[in-house]
Amino acid sequence: MEVIQNKVSQSGLLTFNLEDHYDPHVRIILDIKDWLFKELILKEKDFREFIKACDWEQYRNANVAIICSVDAIVPTWAFMLIASKLSGVAHHYAFGDLSNLENSLFQNSLSKIDLNFYRDKKVVIKGCGNLPVSTNAYVEISRLLLPVVSSIMYGEPCSTVPVFKRKI
Questions:
Q1: pTM of the predicted model, to two decimals?
Q2: In terms of residue numbers, what domain contains 33?
């Protein structure tokens, strides 16, 4: 009788699942347009009053995307001031829309992985899943792994698309 062998487990492939790096905290958009005079001009005194009166606790442990959804001239320091208020309150915050926030979250998480664990390994970056993983996250993990791995594939260990193989 022939013994059934699991060739996938014997292949030495490591699966990297980007969903493991998906941040589960709620996402909130903080749009400053309502803090502008006629949604057009930032008046420093009024803006600082909005900052002072804002209930920053509503952003507690949330991931916050800081935007201005109208075409207005907003000085950089205004966004820095908001960041100073979100610091220590929000779980994470970034300038830009929800897509920018997602990219920032993944970049933050992926920057913490131990690349030495993947040194000279064959890695499959898992493709399908249940959570929204941006193309940017796939590019970022590729950027991080390319200098250290022997190969990168995309998909599932039983059905992969070759992406990269180090030349010997």
A1: 0.87
A2: 27-90
